[in-house]
Amino acid sequence: MPNPYRGEIEAEIGGARRTLVLTLGALAELEAAFGADDLMALAGRFGSGRLSARDLARIIGAGLRGAGNNISDDEVMAMKVEGGASGYVRIAADLIAATFDAPEVAR
Fold first, then answer.
1. Which positions ≥6 away from 12 have C-beta within 8 Å?
2. Distance of CA 65 to the CA centre of its chain
3. Among 14, 37, 40, 66, which is disulfide-ready with 26 (CB 3.0 to 4.6 Å)?
4. Are 81 and 11 in contact (CB under 8 A)?
5. Quick one: which of 78, 98, 93, 95 has its CA closest to 15?
6. Per the domain annotation, does 107 fall within a domain?
7. Total structural domains in the chain?
8. Chain segment 32-56, per-residue pLDDT in tens
9. Are strands 9-13 and 16-20 parallel, antiparallel or unpaired?
């Protein structure tokens, strides 16, 4: 079960249910991959709506590795997801939202 308070999501990738999370290490990996100076620049890049297929693989791959899976970006690109390309976009968008949007906390 994914923990939304930790920014975790669950998605079916490559025929298996997998947990993804952008840990601090995964975010640092993405900063380096995208040439972003900081988290605000990284969030801005994600918010631009202009992500390539390679970008989606990097984001999903970093999320899988953040959750402890030893999966390369090339392996992510070879995996099938429901909905094809739009499925990859949905997974990346859900992961980014879980990372940068705090879940509602009951008071």
1. 18, 81, 82
2. 10
3. 66
4. yes
5. 78
6. no
7. 1
8. 999 999 999 998 888 887 889 999 9
9. antiparallel
Report d(CA 24, CA 7) in Å as an integer: 11
In a domain, 68, yes or no: yes
Q: Which residues contact 53 (CB under 8 A, 6 or more apart)?
A: 77, 85, 88
Q: Which domain holds residue 75?
A: 4-14+22-100
| Residue 106 covered by a domain | no
For 48, phi and psi rounded to 5 degrees?
-70, -20
* Rounded average pLDDT over 21-35: 95
Interhelix angle 24-34/39-47, rounded to 10 degrees, is 70
* pLDDT level of residue 103 (50, 70, 90 thresholds): low
